[in-house]
């Protein structure tokens, strides 16, 4: 109690009472009223409710991968692959990834 010289005798008793009350009822003792965020930590989590709000989406790619015995074709993927082949023939495709530092474009540049 000597650490709080500004409190009067009744103030010190109230301080001690609040300390004991916090221990008995298992609440946070916060005499300086510092913001702790305890109100938000006590709240229920929103995540599970938000995830369950929307139904699962059906994706053609997932269905094709999961059930290969159905021999389904993903039209979007097929057109994408065809577009890549056309771009490769015209020389407009993305460059190949360098496997070694010597193959990279930076290796040929002067520093």
Distance between the termini: 69 Å
Shape: elongated
**Main pleated sheet:** none
Total DSSP helices: 6
Unreliable parts: none
Average pLDDT, rounded to a whole number, is 85
Question: What is the rounded Rg?
Answer: 33 Å
Which structural category fits the helices and strands?
Answer: mainly alpha
Number of strands: 0
State the order of secondary-structure elements, H for helix, E for strand: HHHHHH
Tell me what portion of residues adopts beta-strand conformation: under 5%
Determine the fraction of residues in helical runs and give it as a percent range: 40-55%
Protein name: Small ribosomal subunit protein mS33
Family: Belongs to the mitochondrion-specific ribosomal protein mS33 family.
Keywords: Mitochondrion, Ribonucleoprotein, Ribosomal protein
Organism: Macrolepiota fuliginosa MF-IS2
Structure description:
- This protein is an all-alpha fold and 111 residues long.
- Among the domains are: 1-32, no CATH class; 57-93.
- It is built from six helices and no strands.
- The longest helix has 16 residues, at 9-24.
Which key phrases capture this entry?
mainly alpha, single chain, 111 residues
Offer a concise description of the structure:
The chain has 111 residues and is an all-alpha fold. The protein has 6 helices and no strands.
Sequence-ordered SSE layout with sheet pairings:
Blueprint: H1 9-24, H2 38-42, H3 47-53, H4 60-66, H5 75-90, H6 105-108
Biased composition (Basic and acidic residues): 100-111
Protein name: Small ribosomal subunit protein mS33
Family: Belongs to the mitochondrion-specific ribosomal protein mS33 family.
């Amino acid at each position: 109690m000597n650490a709080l010289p500004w409190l009067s005798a009744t103030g010190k008793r109230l301080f001690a009472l609040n300390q004991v009350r916090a221990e008995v009822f298992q609440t946070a003792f916060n005499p300086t009223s510092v913001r702790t965020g305890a109100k938000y930590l006590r709240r229920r989590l929103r995540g599970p409710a938000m995830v369950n709000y929307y139904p699962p989406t059906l994706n053609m790619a997932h269905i094709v991968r999961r059930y290969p015995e159905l021999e389904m074709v993903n039209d979007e993927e097929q057109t994408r692959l065809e577009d890549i082949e056309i771009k490769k023939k015209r020389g407009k495709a993305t460059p190949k990834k360098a496997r070694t530092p010597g193959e990279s474009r930076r290796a040929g540049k002067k520093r």
